[in-house]
Amino acid sequence: METFDNFLQGTVTLFSDPIGILIFFGGVIGGMLFGAIPGVSMLTLAAILLPFTAHLSPEHGIMLFSVIYCTGVYGGAITAILFNIPGAPENAPTAFDGYPMTQNGQAGKAVGAAVMCSAIGGVVSCIIMMAATAAIADWAISAFGPPEIFALVFFGLAVAASVGAKTFWKGWLSILIGLMVAVVGLDPVGGIERYDFEMPYLLAGIHFIPTILGFFAVSEIFVQAEKKVRGSYEAPKMGVEFPTMKELIAHKFAVIRSIVIGFFCGILPGIGATLAAFMGYNEAVRWSKTPEEFGKGKLEGVISSETANNAATGAAMIPLLALGLPGGALTAMMVGVFQMHDMEPGPLVFINSADLVWVVFAAMFFANLSIIVIGFLETKTIINLLRIPFQFLAPMILLLATVGAYAVRGLTIDVVVMFLAGVIGFFLRRSGYSVAGIVLGLILGKIGEQTFAQAMQMLHFEWSGFLDRWIALGLLIAGFLTLCGSIYGAFFKKHKKASVDSTA
Amino acid sequence: MGKLRTGHLVEAGLWLSLCLVLYIYSFEFDQDIEIYKFGASAWPRTIILLMAIAAIGQLAHHWVKGDESSSDMISAAVDDGSEEAAHEAHHEGLKWYLSTLALLTIPFIYMRVPDWIAAAVSAEDSGLHLIRIVVAAILIAIVVYFIRHHRVRVALMLPLFFAALLEDFGFYTLAPFFIIGIMYLFGERRPKPMALVMALIYGLLLLLFVNILFVGLPVGNIKPFYDIGSWVVTVLQ
């Protein structure tokens, strides 16, 4: 009851303030638009807005970012489905089936499923977040130390290696490239310079925003350029057909499973929506009676991924607000907003700024709810983007990506890095590697190394220490089993011919 | 040789060479850390070892299975059509890759060569700027020469070249030419739509990022390009 009262209080505070309402709707529409416009993402918008939040109150600043987070995660699905350009890594699995659906003339149905499932996942996640914040935060604090987080990162990477690339080995090589890129810069324990090649720029590491923009947006433009030049480019077929309630009910177990997966992935510091989406998708494949249909335009693929990633958004706020640990890029920027107002996210926020917490919770709830209304209206407009000839869309995407990469730190070298990542991504993609794997490796690499170092220090460098921690042990065993299963599959299972007759 | 092709051997060779280079370079930071007995190099070396194992595994896979994909992989990378386009283009050969890499050196030539020339002739700032303009003009002429017959390669290189020129020539001066170049590479040849779309994209970007969001985009370092950029910003803000 207290939770409901707090929620009502947060709602009243949110909607009784004209500036708050303006910022809320600005965030909702901005998040969706930037998530949906190919080549930019909610991270671009957040990066651009970050310096300006200094002029807002802490409530408005954090609320704006949390709203952008909810709607941006959904918005990224639109580009993933329509252009095979995930707005963010958490939308990458959505593209696996969403883009083939677009090519089969089912873009509308795929986007419609993303709208419904993003809203359902996000709203349910928000309700659980509000009802169980304290208990879940307590459990995560006590049960999840560095060994468990490292084990979860390992398990997540083992699962992700089997997604997106042509072979298991290429999947692992993709992830290992990402892990290697994450090594560049200062080592997390001793601050020793690694692979900086005596370039000051590399001391701070390779920033993930230009890398993500390069691997996803720019490499996609290059792929389309090649098709266009060689005459094999076909404009995606367009159809507006939203999924029926019957279809959604038929996938109810996929929705529930993805909510559970998404929520638990989201709550763990440093894991967030990306792994949630990958695991939601992967579990959908595992549980399916027709796993061979995934990757070719199966509605369940879009539903599983989009439900899971939005379910993670509400949960990701728990470690941020309760522990001060960001779960991903956008929550990391939220830490920046706190710091600009001389505040530190953490347990004290619940005591000193309870109003802020509940305004943010209420805003996230209504932002997820608004995806259904605004999402449906805006999506119809965005689907019309498909009518724009690609030769006119390409320079727009490349320039938006340029602004996005430059706006992060005001460095032109970030733009160079982005286009270089695009070229590398282009060559890797045409050789069957997974750019989503690279980006996942890059993001989880730093967390993985840091938590491994902390875990080993905690366990006094005794590997047997993992045996006493059943969650970490369970996750490590699950990761090794996934790995062994993939190696077995790579050599001993019946193989299929590379699908050069794909619908692309 | 099983089902191995030359391309598979080159791919494995590239991976193992990368591993070797990274491993050798890791001695540069192979330092002890008092509180962490594995030191700074253990983590990257583990990744390098795994990378070498995966490269060898990939080679073994090619030996046994050729170009077949794994049965339990969700082959998005295959199904996005990038590999298909490569097959259709028939330019999988080493020569194509090498000539593409050669063209991709153009942006890096611009990033390095003017400084070397300036150091060699002890040029001051204004001299360096002149050298940069001359080098850029020569490289642009080379790009224009290649643009008609090597569109894919130029499409890969042009954005990188644009990024390399940004610092000196500024976003405001370069963006219109970049937009037209990309449209041309994608097959647009009609002058009127090109001019209209260029004006529309350029205008929208400036309005959104400069006029509304006050994002500071690079204005350039070299006169008169710096003046042009500054003038655009002054007018819009």
Describe how the helices and strands are arranged.
The complex is a heterodimer of chains A (504) and B (237).
Chain A: H1 2-15, H2 18-36, H3 42-49, H4 58-83, H5 92-103, H6 107-143, H7 146-160, H8 168-183, E1 185-186, E2 193-194, H9 200-203, H10 208-230, H11 245-250, H12 252-267, H13 272-287, H14 299-323, H15 329-340, H16 347-352, H17 354-383, H18 390-409, H19 412-430, H20 435-458, H21 470-492
Antiparallel strand pairs in A: 1-2
Helix pairs in contact in A: 1-17, 2-3, 2-4, 2-17, 3-4, 3-18, 4-5, 4-6, 4-14, 4-15, 4-17, 5-6, 5-14, 6-12, 6-14, 6-17, 7-20, 7-21, 8-20, 10-18, 10-19, 10-20, 12-13, 12-14, 13-14, 18-19
Chain B: H1 6-26, H2 42-65, H3 76-79, H4 82-89, H5 94-120, H6 125-147, H7 151-169, H8 171-185, H9 191-212, H10 225-236
Helix pairs in contact in B: 1-2, 5-6, 5-7, 6-7, 7-8, 8-9
Question: Would you mind describing this structure in some detail?
Answer:
The complex is a heterodimer of chains A (504) and B (237). A two-stranded antiparallel ribbon of chain A has the order 1-2. Chain A has 504 residues and is an all-alpha fold. Chain A has one domain (2-490). Chain A has helices at residues 2-15, 18-36, 42-49, 58-83, 92-103, 107-143, 146-160, 168-183, 200-203, 208-230, 245-250, 252-267, 272-287, 299-323, 329-340, 347-352, 354-383, 390-409, 412-430, 435-458, 470-492; strands at residues 185-186, 193-194. In chain A, strand 1 (185-186) and strand 2 (193-194) form a beta hairpin. Helix content of chain A is 74%, strand content 1%. By secondary structure, chain B is mainly α. Chain B folds into 2 domains: 6-69; 94-236, no CATH class. Helices cover 74% and strands 0% of the residues of chain B. Chain B is built from 10 helices and no strands. Chain B has helices spanning 6-26, 42-65, 76-79, 82-89, 94-120, 125-147, 151-169, 171-185, 191-212, 225-236. In chain B, helix 5 (94-120) packs parallel to helix 7, helix 6 runs antiparallel to helix 7 (151-169) and helix 8 (171-185) packs antiparallel against helix 9. Chain B is extended and about 60 Å long. Mean pLDDT of chain B is 85; it is low at 73-79. Classes of the chains: A mainly alpha (504), B mainly alpha (237).
